[in-house]
Amino acid sequence: MSTPLTSENLRLAPKVVLHDHLDGGLRPQTLIDLAKETGYDRLPSTDAGTLATWFRESANSGSLERYLETFAHTVGVMQTRDAITRIAAEAAEDLAADGVVYAEVRYAPEQSQQKGLGLDEIVEATQEGFALGASRAAADGRTIRVGTLLCGMRQADRSQEIAELAVRHRDSGVVGFDIAGPEAGFPPTRQIDTFEYLRQENMHFTIHAGESFGLPSVWEAVQRCGAERLGHGVRLADDVTVGEDGSVKLGEVASYVRDRRIALEMCPSSNLQTGAAKSLEEHPFPLLAAERFRVTVNTDNRLMSDCTVSSEFGLLVEAFGYGWEDVERFTLNAAKAAFIDYEDRRALIDDVLIPAYQALAGDGS
Ligand SMILES: O=c1[nH]cnc2c1ncn2[C@H]1C[C@H](O)[C@@H](CO)O1
Ligand SMILES: [Zn+2]
Where along this sequence does the record place binding of substrate (predicted)? Predict the structure, then answer.
């Protein structure tokens, strides 16, 4: 018999998240504690409940630029080694508690230098935190592995430095690179030399594209920069035409992305907040999933969207009637697109995910 697809069972099911920002996932109380400890005096509230609501409501702005303004407060407390380690440890614990077995968590090290920390020190403090969080989760009976993506910020000019930092730390848990920040006016080709460098170093990278800017941004990210995955990529749907008879026709960019199995790191709640999608019903997730794009389900920012990986799955299950076989497919999509070694991906898929979803779907019982 199949296990009922409830929110609690979704939480217990093993999941993979590829797009989760460290500075978008702080616990509200931690933010308050760290603001006090580090002398950050600009928090909108020192009550955890009020602060959580403030983030959710402020991020719910309909604009990516305004959504991004809320990060000044989280980044504001990520300026000491201890604060960064605590935040990373809690992120690993919170993801593990939500049933995530493999996570790629990203952040922009250049934003943690307000008090003079060095870039390498920031990466070391983060890695230390993830290791600590994973070992605390293990003590609680949960297994999680965390890979890190380092982000260059599109509006700044430090991507090359950050890419070199990622390459330097590739043997201690950094698995890839990304560019984040405002999309309009900052095309990924501004950093084209950095992407060329990363390819020469055999380093993986994803690019936030097709979120607040349209199809040209997706095309540039894929064809000019060589992105292996797309952060969001919702506007790819502009290249998918659904006829009156329900027939679906893909344009060249969409075809290429589907043919090459370029993963789409979809984050439904975040998309609703930034206006990348008007409503869940109009979100391109079900269309792209039905057309067998490599869609994955992600949080983007757990604090700003007040979500978890399992709650994002829950939204999609409720809106589009997905079953365990769909949850499994989206999870396997994420495992296949992870930036870890092939052997590790295979082990994750064969030894962890497939047996668990067989049991959930009631196969062989
Ligand atoms: O959805 C997003 N689009 C573009 N940039 C984003 C998004 N979510 C977070 N960021 C930015 C704000 C963070 O400070 C930065 C690094 O995690 O990435
Ligand atoms: Zn993001």
Answer: 21, 23, 181
